[in-house]
Amino acid sequence: MAILLGKTDMRKMLSREELDRNVECIKKQIEKFVSFEGENSAIIVNNADWLLDLKFVDFVREIGSLFSVNRMLAAECYKQRMETGLTFFEMSYMLMQSYDFLYLYNKYGCKLQMGGNDQWSNIIGGVELIRKIGKDDSFGLTFKLLTTKEGKKMGKTEKGALWLDPNKTSPYEFYQYWRNVEDGSVENVFKMLTFVPIEKIKELSSYQDEKINEAKKILAYEITKLIHGEEEAKKAEEASNALFSGQGSIDNMPTITLPQPNTSILDAIILTNIAPSKGQARTLISQGGISLNDEKISDVNYILSDKDFSNGYAILKKGKKVFYKLEK
Question: What CA–CA distance (Å, rounded) separates 289 from 266?
């Protein structure tokens, strides 16, 4: 069985070193769910091992000749890109992914490829390629993507992608993302990402108004525990409770140590990655989106002083959901 993840944006060109590093990082994340040791253990392979050594003419003659361009362009993944421009590299991705399946089939006896339903065309391309060489025992399986009620993919935060890597998205930020998921998505997320019994999910997702927040707390805790472990989930929960109910500890809130005593509010916003530039930081302030210790900041030239750290720290907040603890 091969499992893959999809992309809808233009794929970046990575060096072999970057590819190898990504494989190791992905393996560390997957180790939480499958075993790479012992009998019947999973294996992880890097398709750069066989794709980088392909000879172009041989590849297009032996593999490319088995694909119809007309049928490829009818695929949804290509139709969406035709409006903005489709490079030959992107066009050839289906061939390379299909060849991946053929290679895994021949070398490892891999007969099932799984992926999100946005990968249906690419997976079917691999199944058909294997059949064209005379084999009929390969299969594809896709599953629904996690989306908002508007049909958009979930996983976007104020800083960009929602990462499984704790060095890119801290367990606290990860917890807060699911804690703040929209009300209408609670049931779907519970069903797709947790092992909570269906009867309990139906009960929790039936909560209305303020009570739905109790369901979201359980949702955030269960998903964070699954990805980062029970200890980190408890720490994230405590930090969140400390902020929103005055109970718990803020020790596990994302913390930034300021490089100098009298740091400007603009520099503090940039240091926390709340905004990438002073221009955007000024816009947030002018729109009333920045608070310090629950006080709205309206002066873009504001300088943090000792009075802001009366508790030994200051809490910088964007809107109602993004918090950072500032220390001197």
Answer: 13
Q: Write down the number of H helices and E strands in the chain.
A: 15, 10
Q: Are 8 and 118 in contact (CB under 8 A)?
A: yes
Instruction: Please state the pTM of the whole predicted model.
Output: 0.76
CATH of 2-143, one of 3.40.50.1380, 3.40.50.620, 2.40.128.20, 3.40.50.2300: 3.40.50.620
Rounded to whole angstroms, the Cα distance separating 140 from 131 reads 12
- List the chain domain ranges: 2-143, 156-244, 255-327
Establish how many alpha carbons lie within 13 A of residue 56's alpha carbon, considering only the half-sphere containing its beta carbon. 2
Residue-wise pLDDT for 57-105, tens only, equals: 999 999 999 999 888 888 877 877 777 788 888 888 899 999 999 999 9
Q: Give the CA angle between residues 11, 178, 80 to the nearest 5°.
A: 30
**CB neighbours (10 Å) of residue 224?**
25
